[in-house]
Amino acid sequence: MSAASETALDQGSVAQRMSDIREAARGVSEGFSRQYMRECIDNHRFPQEAWDALGDYGLLGITIPEALGGVGGGQVELVALMEALSETGMVLPMLLLTGFARVPILRNGTPDQIDRFVKPTISGAEKLCFAITEPDAGTNSFAMTSLATQAGDGYRLTGRKVFISGAADADRMLVVARTQKASEVERRTEGMSLFVVDTDAPGVELQPLNIDVGWPERQYLVFFDDVELDADRLIGQPGQGLAAMFEALNSERLLVTAMSVGLGNYALKKAVAYANERKPFGKPIGSYQAVQHRLAEAKAELEAARLMMIQAAATFDAGGKAGDHANMAKLLGSRAAVKAVEAALQTHGGYGFDKDYDVITLWPSARLMEVAPVNNEMLLNYIGEHVLGLPKSY
């Protein structure tokens, strides 16, 4: 049995780093009410005003070195920001998307690519999304068929992607595609490459899906029809994109955990306030153990997920192997968020299903985290195989 990769955690330093970001985030969240966010969600309108405020505060520059115009910091600071905003009811998946889509470019891109594709995101002038999932391949990303073939000095991209969040709101997307078909490589992990594609490029078509998960951003089916890409749109070496892809996905799992923990705590805050006020039998219902214990269990599980998230983020920033704990954090965080929202629903009783009480509105987003960006069953498979050393089942 292997042990999960771990980096020594300087708790005092990490706590201070997170505290500084949470204080800065408060300056943004206090300027935008949950009602504002609900209006954006209900109308699928991107919360541009909140996004601009994040840029004005320099918070979109987290993880970008100061030498490049950012504010520095790493995943620890970024998850702190995502968590702090989410626990006030500010659901900003584009922060998650841009945050992790920049990782492979920063780590594997040329200086010119960083200037062109990363620097404009620091102010918020441009946004990024990420395109990996395909209609037929689903969770088995290695079976993707989107293909970028060489054409002169560049490439032509053809294929489809699905469940691409915020594609219409983003300026560019980081696309995972094959530069060699799966049938042409010795190992299925070979032949995968990363490309930066403009969302309005000729040959790119966005088709909105009829999905509503409580986010301002919609989900899209994306078609690539002979999209011309210059050679400088390739990040890293052709066919060697797997490691960079997983760098992005580990960051994504941590940010999803932060959103889950934040939304779970937002739901609990509402439930506790209601449980202290509601007195159908003369005493607050929060004094009843049947109500109290359910909320207490959800809180304990949120804190456990949060600690795992912080450990994984610190490992990521130190250059260690964060995959084990990142996967565990996402598993625990998504489950805890659902448990917290359901506890809040039960506490509110029938009122919990009234959208004006803003509890049932949280459930789709929390529940989605058990399915996306990778379903929890696959996370359990990962833990079984890579942490426990059990045989692969699929």
Descriptive account of the structure:
This protein is 47% helix and 13% strand. It contains twelve helices and eight strands. The protein is globular, with a radius of gyration of 21 Å. The longest helix is centred in the middle third of the chain and has 36 residues, at 242-277. The strands form two sheets. The protein has a four-stranded mixed beta sheet with strand order 1-4-5-8, with helices on one face. Strands 2-3-7-6 form a four-stranded antiparallel beta sheet, with helices on one face.
Task: For this entry, give a set of tags.
single chain, Butyryl-CoA Dehydrogenase, subunit A, domain 2, 12 helices, 47% helix, Butyryl-CoA Dehydrogenase, subunit A, domain 3, Butyryl-Coa Dehydrogenase, subunit A, domain 1, globular, 394 residues, 4-stranded mixed beta sheet
Write the layout of secondary structure elements.
Elements: H1 11-29, H2 34-42, H3 48-56, H4 75-86, H5 93-108, H6 111-117, H7 119-122, E1 128-131, E2 147-151, E3 154-165, E4 172-178, E5 192-198, E6 204-208, E7 219-229, E8 234-235, H8 242-277, H9 289-317, H10 323-348, H11 363-368, H12 376-387
Parallel strand pairs: 1-4
Antiparallel strand pairs: 2-3, 3-7, 4-5, 5-8, 6-7
